[in-house]
From TrEMBL:
SUPFAM superfamilies membership: Tetrahydrobiopterin biosynthesis enzymes-like
EC nos: 3.5.4.16
Official protein name in the record: GTP cyclohydrolase 1
Organism, scientific name: Paenibacillus spiritus
GO BP annotations listed: one-carbon metabolic process; tetrahydrobiopterin biosynthetic process; tetrahydrofolate biosynthetic process
Length: 197
């Protein structure tokens, strides 16, 4: 398992020629001419893009928080507005938005950038928004043994905007609360107020 810094999908790299062949076939099957100039390099571009947008599989999300530090801060820590791009597992269409993560440490803190690396590892896959939200909350709780974790994810799903029900501008908001945040409405309210600022 590679580290999250090298977040490229190894399997795509290994299977690049096969993937390119299948993309060429799809181009034909939708009525395009894969031999025309503008499409000649498209299968290779798509394969390179897959390495990137499915790069989350190259990382173990639990390892992304890296080395944690002893620190006695036992109040709320928030990293908000972490932009993500993911692919919905139903249509393989992009969805994207922001993740907001808050936690109350229990003697151990993580590097702030590592929270964004966790988001990358969990979102650069075929996903549903609810699973992204709960996976981030569960991993934060487990790895940091945090007293509480709260995660809010906002998402705009192209499968709802550009096709199907066609509702551009509609936003999905998902939340996950663990530990103290489950039991304490005031803690949840403090977090929600701070991410709105
Ligand atoms: N809960 C959830 N649903 C999602 C997510 N991404 C896409 N979907 C939904 O997955 C569902 C798939 O429904 P289906 O009826 O199997 O597929 P479909 O015929 O293409 O559905 P429509 O999108 O309604 O045209 C749709 O309702 C999508 O809106 C997500 O992250 N979470
Ligand atoms: Zn979808």
């Amino acid at each position: 398992m590679r580290g999250v810094k090298d977040c490229r999908n190894v399997k795509v790299a290994e299977n690049r020629e096969l993937i390119e062949g299948h993309i060429r076939e799809i181009l034909e099957l939708i009525g395009e001419d894969p031999g025309r100039e503008g499409l000649l390099d498209t299968p290779a571009r798509v394969a390179r893009m897959y390495e990137e947008i499915f790069g989350g599989y190259a990382a173990d999300p639990r390892e992304t928080l890296g080395v944690t530090f002893d620190e006695s801060h036992e109040e709320l820590v928030i990293v908000k507005d972490i932009v993500y791009y993911s692919q919905c597992e139903h249509h393989m269409a992009p969805f994207f938005g922001k993740v907001h993560i808050g936690y109350i440490p229990n003697g151990r803190i993580a590097g702030l950038s590592k929270l964004a690396r966790l988001v990358e590892a969990v979102t650069r896959r075929l996903q549903v928004q609810e699973r992204i939200t709960s996976q981030i909350a569960d991993i934060m709780e487990e790895v940091l043994e945090a007293q509480g974790v709260m995660v809010v994810v906002e998402g705009e799903h192209l499968c709802m905007c550009a096709r199907g029900v066609k509702k551009p501008g509609s936003k999905t908001v998902t939340t996950a609360a663990r530990g103290l945040f489950r039991a304490d409405p005031a803690a949840r309210a403090e977090f929600l107020a701070l991410i709105k600022e």
